[in-house]
Amino acid sequence: MSTGAITIVTGGAGALGSAIVRQQARHGERVVALDRKEAQDRINALEKEGAPRVLGLATDVTIDSDWHATLEHVKAKFGDPTGAVLTAGGWTGGTPIHAAKDDSAWQSMMQNNTETVYRALRALLPGMVERGHGSIVVVGARQVVRSELGAGAAEYTASKAAVGALTQAVAAEVLSKGVRVNAVLPSIIDTPANRAGMPDVDPRLWVAPDSLADVIAFLLSDAARDISGALIPVYGKV
Question: For burial by CB atoms within 10 Å, which of 10, 65, 70, 222 has the most?
């Protein structure tokens, strides 16, 4: 049964994002899947699968003007968002910083992981604060609290650590305004890309997207009304 929630999911056409979109829609919620133009076909497929509860939009979540147009579209279609899940991001690694030939990994990770979260918070929080209600869940990584595990991918680790710090600082800023901000810290998510990249590892040890989506759904819900500024470990069996 619907609770009237309207949830925006950045990276909504990805492995985790699409699992969240499908789960929220199955629960009767209205969901907005945002992803890049390159994912237009997958966005359209998600919207068709979840109609009329799913709205798919091609949006660059690092551009303020795209956010403005997106939120206007969402308001006209569903109403003001009550929640958001920020899954947009990426991974680059394999080279220690002392062996890096240029700054491309650093720039990519800060843009894809940190900037996407910052711009989303800048776009979403003013309306939620004004309305006095909202819940945002940020997807971080275990390296937020275990930085040594990021050896060989220091740029990724730094970008996710910044996201963790941003989550907790912003949560303190808006707590008295009725808005909650939390982060989940998965280890390795069982995605097609990770299976292809680590074919010798048993994926049953990893975090299933549906399992992580369950944790996120709880944090979005009123059942988690007393939780804000938390960094929730979701490590699977590794």
Answer: 10
Other beta carbons within 10 Å of 97: 13
- The predicted model scores a pTM of 0.96
Segment (H or E) for 210: helix 209-220
Which pLDDT value is given to residue 1? 41
The C-alpha atoms of residue 20 and residue 85 are separated, in whole angstroms, by 8
Give the start-to-end residue ranges of the domains of the chain: 6-234
Residue 161 three-state SS: helix
How far apart are the C-alpha atoms of 136 and 147, rounded to whole Å?
Answer: 24
User: Residues 86, 10: contact at Cβ < 8 Å?
Assistant: yes
Buried b (16+ CB within 10 A) or exposed e, 34-61: bbbeebeebbeebbeebeebbbbbbbbb
Distance set, CA 72 to CA 20, 30, 105, 119, 206 (Å): 22, 16, 34, 16, 38
